Amino acid sequence: PVRLREVAEAAGVTVSTASRALNRPELVRPETQERVAQAARLLGYVPNRMARAVVTGRSGTIVFVIPDLSLGLFHTVAAAAQQEARRRKYDLLVADSMGNADREVGLVEGSRGYAEGIILLWPQGDYEPEPGDPPLVTIGRQVRGAHAVLLDQSHVLEQQHAPVATNDPRC
Questions:
Q1: Core vs surface per residue 7-33: b (16+ CB within 10 A) or e
Q2: Is residue 49 within 8 Å of residue 20, measured between CB atoms?
Q3: What is the CA 160 to chain-centroid distance, rounded?
Q4: pLDDT band for position 166 (cuts 50, 70, 90)
Q5: What is the pLDDT of residues 118-134, one digit of tens each?
Q6: Residue 55 and residue 160: Cα distance in Å, rounded?
Q7: Which residue in 69, 116, 119 sits closest to 90, CA to CA?
Q8: Strands 61-66 and 91-96, how do they pair?
Q9: pLDDT value of position 170
């Protein structure tokens, strides 16, 4: 892969100027920014997100833990989350806990060091966020110390409405 140093050399600028031209173009003269951008295009430069994360302290990654990716509803929720994350310029890593609380805990623990946020869909375990942890959001179940999205289905149960969707051939 092409490194930023090579782009800088091709554009005739320092590495720090090349970095500013690509990441904060308002800090360099327009002609310098154009020269660096053209060198990057010609060389096929693609920024190294891991290196950028080291410098900025931001990974641009959200981890979404789902209890069973094979279930259609969960797959649909994951696809919608992926689309929204992409729109906001985040990467979404989807992990399947396979309905296992210990696996879910391991996925959450392993994500704390690099994720900017963790989303748990119908979490199995209990979590106590610690200072410095990324924000934790749960869907479908409240967990102490986390933000939650809860679904209110009481009115459906009270009214005894028919299910919204079913794969039962009798319906």
A1: bbebbebeeebbbbbbeeeeebeeebb
A2: no
A3: 38
A4: very low
A5: 999 999 888 888 888 89
A6: 55
A7: 116
A8: parallel
A9: 46
Residues whose CB falls within 8 Å of the CB of residue 81, separated by 6 or more in sequence, listed in order: 64, 92, 94, 119
pLDDT in tens, 18-52: 999 998 899 999 999 999 999 999 999 998 777 77
Tokens encoding 123 = 């979490």
Q: Which residues pair with 94 in a beta bridge?
A: 64
* Residue 33, both tokens: 């920014």
Secondary structure (DSSP) of the chain: ---HHHHHHHHTS-HHHHHHHHH-GGGS-HHHHHHHHHHHHHHT----HHHHHHHHS---EEEEEES-TTSHHHHHHHHHHHHHHHHTT-EEEEEE-TT-HHHHHHHHHHHTTT-SEEEEES--S-----TTPPPEEEESS--TTSEEE----HHHHHHTPPPS----TT-
In angstroms, rounded to a whole number, what is the distance separating the alpha carbons of residues 7 and 14? 9
Amino acid in position 52:
R
